[in-house]
Recover the amino acids of this structure.
């Protein structure tokens, strides 16, 4: 059993890097939907307010930066704050604080995932590693 744990410990930076890439791409898709009209665009009846434009830009640019691992920590920190704001402004006010009722579970998960990335760093396969910003992943 200890051998399995040791093997996974050695792979941790690579697993974190793949996780970061996937999360960044998925987050970027939300911004592409808002800003570029991709994936069917915004649902009917949703007006593009300044809040939605701002969120879309942070999702699009922040998600792309997180995916490629460039300026990962500040991009993840900003994205984490956006998701906390989205939960409390857009989901918690829908009659229930609980995410399984107000559909805020994705916002909470993205918030904490990005907060973790901002604290931990990008892992492997990140452009930040080329400039020596993340020495642990080498």
């Amino acid at each position: 059993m200890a051998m399995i744990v040791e093997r996974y410990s050695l792979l941790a930076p690579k697993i974190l890097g793949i996780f970061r890439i996937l999360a960044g791409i998925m987050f970027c898709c939300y911004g592409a939907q808002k800003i570029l009209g991709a994936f069917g665009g915004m649902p009917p009846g949703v007006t593009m307010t300044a809040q939605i434009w701002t969120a879309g830009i942070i999702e699009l640019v922040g998600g792309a930066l997180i995916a490629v691992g460039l300026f990962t920590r500040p991009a993840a920190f900003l994205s984490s704050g956006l998701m906390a704001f989205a939960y409390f402004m857009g989901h918690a006010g829908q009659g229930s604080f609980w995410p399984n009722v107000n559909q805020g579970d994705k916002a909470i998960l993205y918030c904490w995932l990005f907060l973790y990335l901002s604290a931990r760093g990008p892992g492997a396969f990140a452009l930040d590693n080329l400039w020596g910003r993340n020495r642990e992943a080498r």
Summary: The radius of gyration is 17 Å. The chain has a mean pLDDT of 91. DSSP finds five helices and no strands in the chain. Residues 2-36 form the longest helix (35 residues).
